[in-house]
Amino acid sequence: MPRKAHTKSRYGCDNCRRRRVKCDEQGPPCNNCVLRRLHDCKYSRVLPANILSSARPPSHDANSQQSTSVSPVPAIASAGVSPAASVSLNPRPLNELELMLHFTTETFQSLCISDAETVTWQKLVPRLALDHRYLLHGIFSLASLHLATTTADPARMRLYVDTGLEYHSKSLEPFRVALDNLSPENCDAVFAESVVTAAICLALPQLTSGPENEGAMINNVVTAFQLLQGVKKILFIGRGWIKLKLFVKGDFWSDVSTDLDEDTQSAFDQLSVLNDQIELSRENVLQSRHGRHREIIKHLRHCFMKFQCSPDPAPVLAWLGAVDNDFVDNVQRRSPLSLLVLAHWGVLLAELNDKRWWAHNAGRALVDEILGILDTGNLSWEACLGWVRRKMGLHQKLVNRASSKNETILS
């Protein structure tokens, strides 16, 4: 009996084949290498010309109901069988059901800011995802990453992380298209996916750590910045379109009837003074940048006060959506003052460390990256950086390191 023809991928890039994950064969670089920021995407096996056209997936609308080509969570080996031998590359709808089940029973809770949002995240958003493929992929990605944090088996964790990466990669381009084409029909899905994507961006660096991911925390926060701009667009041009009740506790940016603790208030005063000093030391053409930083610092101070009243993700994520594109560009260019402001937000993010799995250790990782870049030696800067180090528990680490160095010199 002749062997049945099948469409198993044999022409993926070398990186994907080495890691045994499904390659989209669209490179170089392929989506997986782009997402992992790998610069050596190569194809040792060349796709034959006679099947090249059939290997390319047909394009379709971002909200299409066509089935996804993303590989679901591969089956895990049973006892006595190696994990690699048990990986199935064929689609298994049951595994997508596993991801949706996990999202609707476990993962959704990490996105709620109150019990009032339970129905929204557990029922309404998954139902909405059936009509918006990028949201469905976002849900699958976040659920898969969540599952990765629940297992102690390295092989199983790797499979869930790779699946989460693949679904995340699949969701990004159609989501960006939706962001550029907001309408009453898609604004709820865009709003929900903005929050889901922010959680994914904060979780990923902690699950994909390695030498090839240097700078991943700052870069992923930049991605979250960019994608959360959709929330700002909705609030400006389509607030009346939104039907989902998400992050609603009155007018977020209205005045808060509380004061910051003395230490935090002093830190923001020092940050504002530093911003003023930089304005005076530069040409007038840079005053507009100073003004933007002043507003961004003001917004961040407000988010700290909001978090003090209600310690949930809303004040943390709200600031990401409030900053402007110029600030994001400055972060990408590693502008020192912008990074310093971002480090202060990292302190706020760290407050979610034990409250949301996707934020676990993210604040510390972000601050660590920034402190590795900022080495000014300036007393005004050191006053601001000292507060950040102290809040993150890094101040004592420096003291211990200096003490150890002195003991070595004296011995």
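[next item in queue]
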Amino acid sequence: MSSSTALLSLVLLSLLSSTAVCLTCYECVFPTISPLECQGFPKKCAAGERCLYSTATAVKDSVRFVLKEKSCAAASKCGIRGEKRTAGLVFSYNTQCCDTDLCNAAAPPGAPCWSRTALSLGGTALAVLLASV
């Protein structure tokens, strides 16, 4: 591979990796109460937003309430746990996010999702290896 071709490849790869990538995430029209899963519809998120999956659980008189929500969210809304009192109930909530299209289809597994940054770095390393062959 000539040096000009390798340079052009690196410039194009750099431009592609720096372009803001907008995710498509499921978004619930209305949050739902268990045992039903909220019916999500695909939505294009704003640049920098992540796919969010949130659950809030409360128990009253041996009845368990679980609210579920899916949406696009700013990174600051991710990984939050806490309690909130509303309608005479104390809800324990947990928000988790992921970084691939439609990754919030169901409750996220315990393992973290690969971030777009990690995938981008892997792609860059592969391009450099291929350019040197």
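[queue empty]
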